[in-house]
Amino acid sequence: MTDLEEIQTFIDRFVRQGMRGALLPLLHAVQEEFGHVDPKAVPLIADALNLSRAEVHGVISFYHDFRTAAPARHVVKLCRAESCQSRGSAAIEAELSRHLGVAMGNSRKDGQVALEPVYCLGLCAIGPNALVDDRPVARIDSAAVERITSEVEA
Amino acid sequence: MTRVFVSKDMASVALGADGLARAFADAGCEVVRTGSRGLFSIEPLVEVETDGARIAYGPVGPGDVAAVLDGSHPARIGAIEAHPFFASQQRFTFARCGVTDPLNLADYAANGGWKGLEAAFSLSPQEVVDAVKASGLRGRGGAGFPTGIKWQTVLDTDADEKFIVCNADEGDSGTFADRMLMEGDPYCLIEGMAIAGHAVGATHGYIYIRSEYPFAIEAMREAIARSAGKVAPFTLEVRVGAGAYVCGEETALLDSIEGRRGQVRAKPPLPAIEGLWGKPTVINNVLSLAAVPFILAEGAQAYADVGFGRSRGTMPIQIAGNVKNGGLYEVGFGVTLGELVDEIGGGTASGRPVRAVQVGGPLGAYFPPSMFHLPFDYEAFAQAGGLIGHAGITVFDDSVDMAHMARFAMEFCAVESCGKCTPCRIGSTRGVELIDRIVAKAPRESGALEAMPQIRNTKGAARTHDEEIDLLRDLCDTMKYGSLCALGGFTPYPVLSALDHFREDFGGASALPEAAE
């Protein structure tokens, strides 16, 4: 549970830059700092940018990147787009899901790891690809699935 | 001290370039981190400076350092420029990518950098626009609209403020040229945007980069800070997307920069007249803007001399998917699909026969090998029922299920639809259901709906398999002509091309004889 006052201070500091169209950059900054965008922060953000709460909520819910709850300790984002599919990503997805013990698009109950879909990382000639805690991994095979699994279990 | 060059491109890093660079540094070498040369089958790649020339080795790992340094390693390639994948390219836009240190300003200037901007500053805005028009440059984002005409409109529109926006929301699977350029030669894009600013009278620019490209975001931010003095009074800023594919559509992208949901705007008004915050805005793809410095530095004619028909200049083609020699291949328009896939790409990585290639990302058509004679040209592809798009080619071997790929196209559209227009928002979901029924050979039964007294125009019996396919075509027609933007409008391309060329995957006989080849 993040302290609202802390979020308010953070927002105030950000808004002082006077950036035009500041909502997305501010949401990114809040998520970067606090791990997610707490729904309780929505009125604060709306107030700071002179927007309605509906506008802020609308933006948060529109973009896949913004989270409203704390993320798992490790996040594996596996590409599901065409180029990775042509290189066997469907089988890798099933294997990874089995090894990590979590279905695609979910966080494991113990909060250790989340498996999320991503549509293209721009590494399309060397798939299947993933971002493991923001580190790019390419040419994922069964051995790589085991490496990723032991990495995120640690 | 021996100088070695190792890429820090995201793809190279994903293949282990960081460990390789560390190993060479530990061995006492001076390691220069560059962009990627663009051929991933030889990465991780290292180039060792020997007697003023660069000798490449790849793929190599951290354990190969000693053998590389004494020249005995078997993965010796020699001069990269002589490698067949590179020797046949015409690198106008990617001339420096993989060669120079991307953030080194002296390196940039020593390799032809800023020459285009200096030439532009010596010309009037109208003369710059005329040069871009004369080059025949067309929008590299996919639509192929003449860049010079777009700039002319912005130049001719009076306003107190104008903007240059770079669309770096490269969301199409099978494309990575924007990413490679931003990571490997960011000043080239900055130079192109500064030239555009001078040409239309804009003083501020935005580069909208997708959040899936953290390396490119970092490289561009750093490059903007370092080159600020060079492009002044023009200023630049990076804006980061948030995982919405539709923001690659230009008007949705503008809404996103303004801080709103990335929803598509109806056109007109064109962004060139009423764009960002209602002001005249040049919005171009990374590759369009990055092609401009060459045009100004070398002359419009030098660019226009290369190409095919009405497609002038070069295209950085991205060969991706299940292919042996995947990577970035920049060449003049006119090269055939077959040359790209079979000769340059070397066929599939799995060694199985090629069954289909998708050109132009998730909204591009699937072509069978019987259409490999098609020349890479906007008009030729449009005529064949497809599009070049951002020039990504995704190769599939014979294990692909094309009905599954058609379903995926609809599913992707349903997930990523901005929701503003009905054909895209609802049509995509209905498309998924319809393809599911077609594949399961379970046509829709006559149900409670048909029995209602208000419904008079249904036949009241179950549909046949063929009727379901007709309905899918009908739905595609509605989406194609009724959607506001290319997301709903182009999703029919992969669906219909799969249906036309690979009918056997949808249950029933092949519709076109060539698909049986």
TrEMBL record, chain A:
It catalyses: a quinone + NADH + 5 H(+)(in) = a quinol + NAD(+) + 4 H(+)(out). Binds 1 [2Fe-2S] cluster. GO terms for molecular function: 2 iron, 2 sulfur cluster binding; metal ion binding; NADH dehydrogenase activity. InterPro entries: NuoE-like, NuoE_N, Thioredoxin-like_sf. The keyword Iron applies. Keywords: 2Fe-2S, Iron, Iron-sulfur, Metal-binding. Its cofactor is [2Fe-2S] cluster. [2Fe-2S] cluster binds at C79, C84, C120, C124. NCBIfam families: PRK05988.1. PANTHER family: NADH DEHYDROGENASE [UBIQUINONE] FLAVOPROTEIN 2, MITOCHONDRIAL, NADH DEHYDROGENASE UBIQUINONE FLAVOPROTEIN 2, MITOCHONDRIAL. Belongs to the complex I 24 kDa subunit family. This is Formate dehydrogenase subunit gamma.
TrEMBL record, chain B:
SUPFAM superfamilies: Nqo1 FMN-binding domain-like, Nqo1 middle domain-like, Nqo1C-terminal domain-like. InterPro entries: NADH-UbQ_OxRdtase_51kDa_CS, Nuo51_FMN-bd, Nuo51_FMN-bd_sf, Nuop51_4Fe4S-bd, Nuop51_4Fe4S-bd_sf. SMART domains: NADH_4Fe-4S. Keywords: 4Fe-4S, Iron, Iron-sulfur, Metal-binding. Residues 403-448 form the NADH-ubiquinone oxidoreductase 51kDa subunit iron-sulphur binding domain. One of its GO terms (molecular function) is FMN binding. Gene3D superfamilies: 3.10.20.600, 6.10.250.1450, NADH-ubiquinone oxidoreductase 51kDa subunit, NADH-ubiquinone oxidoreductase 51kDa subunit, iron-sulphur binding domain. Transmembrane segments: none annotated. Its cofactor is FMN. Belongs to the complex I 51 kDa subunit family. PANTHER family: NADH-QUINONE OXIDOREDUCTASE SUBUNIT F. This is Formate dehydrogenase subunit beta. It comes from Novosphingobium endophyticum. The gene is nuoF.
